[in-house]
Amino acid sequence: MGVNSETSTYDVVVIGGGPVGENAADYAIRGSERTAVIIEHQLVGGECSYWACMPSKGLLGPGAALAAAQALPGARERLSDVAPDPSAVLARRDTITSGRDDSSQVEWAQNAGIDVIRGHGRIVGDRKVSVGDRHIRAREAVVIATGSIASIPPVAGLREALPWTSRDATNLIDIPERIVVLGGGVVACEAATWLLDLGVRELTMAVRGSRLLPKDEPFVGEMVANSLTERGADIRFGTELDRVERPDAADSGYGRLHGGPARVTLRGSGDTLEVDEILVAAGRAPATADLGLGAIDLPDTGPLTVDDHLIVSGHPWLYAVGDVNGRVALTHMGKYQARVAGDVIAARAEGRNLDSSRYSAFADHSAVPQVVFTRPEVAAVGITEQQARDDGVDVTVADMDIAVAGTYLLDPEYSGHAKLVIDRARDVIIGATFVGAGTAELVHSATVAVVGEVPIERLWHAVPSYPTVSEIWLRLLESLR
Predict the structure, then answer these.
(1) Is 168 annotated as a binding residue?
(2) Which of 47, 143, 222, 373 is most buried per CB count within 10 Å?
(3) Is residue 147 a known part of a binding site?
(4) Per residue in 214-265, pLDDT tens?
(5) 397 annotated among ligand-binding-site residues
């Protein structure tokens, strides 16, 4: 320890200041005399606030609003343009992200009794963390909530071309006329949606698999692909990048074009595209490197293995929440884990037992909700029919287009689809998927049904309001009679 070093002690030390870390610290000390500190080397508020959930939905909202107005006679006649104004959209995005100024998030933490230390936290021993010359000891727990980072596939010349990742796409300043999007998952599909809204002239999606959004029911990817294609996207399935050439690549900052045009050669076809930018949306990896995990005999790559209390195996004082544990890479599920972990830390500090279900993150296994804000929207929870059958579950399904009075009122030509997967033996829903405008607001009712294991017979008495899109619940139940 150097002569200028400083040592501090807190009950709870959290490495990572995103919403997941914030929730873990808050729940661990709320209503008590315990102390907590968050260590963050970038922005308090994390990926979600500045580079992911919030800015992406800010970019997607105006296009969705115009599409909704365009669908309704009486509204469409008042529209002067069906495309959003790019400068206004980007200005709104900057308002949502506070121009990447995290002072309000720091103020929230301080008001919650949580200290904030700027710097890179590293574990140096049991319950011990260093930040530069500063040494911090945790009485009760250390929580790792460092999230994940974008993965760059090992394609010749790709890394050297300095491609965009999701951080650039959500913080774009320069709108490329021609772009290739590598990937077919949530980030790729949402980014393609807003890039087309903002005026990208040529958008090519290089998708390794045979469909978009492959973790969802097959009709999901088909409907999203059809919509993107109708809007001008060129989707190449079964396609990977073979090599990339960009001789004048330049690190010009988030959302700027990273140099001049790039030549992208596609594997298999040998086609070569000249594009202004490349967006890599090919997955993410847990941010575990350079955390000092070797000091406590843990690997410094890959996810941290945890139990349902979010405790790292073999280290009863160490917790890992959010993307870093590799269970579910969704902000709301990370926050859920953080709430559970915080409650566990508080209970253990106070000598209470952990028998209650509130101390177990069991929803991660089979009741994960997600919304994909493409057009059409995708909302799903639980498992797909194929996943259920692969698990040996005897299932029946309710599967139909969404066509009720509420959808006609949204759009006379509304297009949507819904599917329920039901465990035949238990007569409960284990999966639900909705595609169509306005379906994001249907997923929580499905989540309650899945988590609560509500029998189908009982769901008949959950009456949907008329005339709303939720009336599809009645139609689905009728199909099971």
Answers:
(1) no
(2) 143
(3) yes
(4) 999 999 999 999 999 999 999 999 999 999 999 999 999 999 999 999 999 9
(5) no
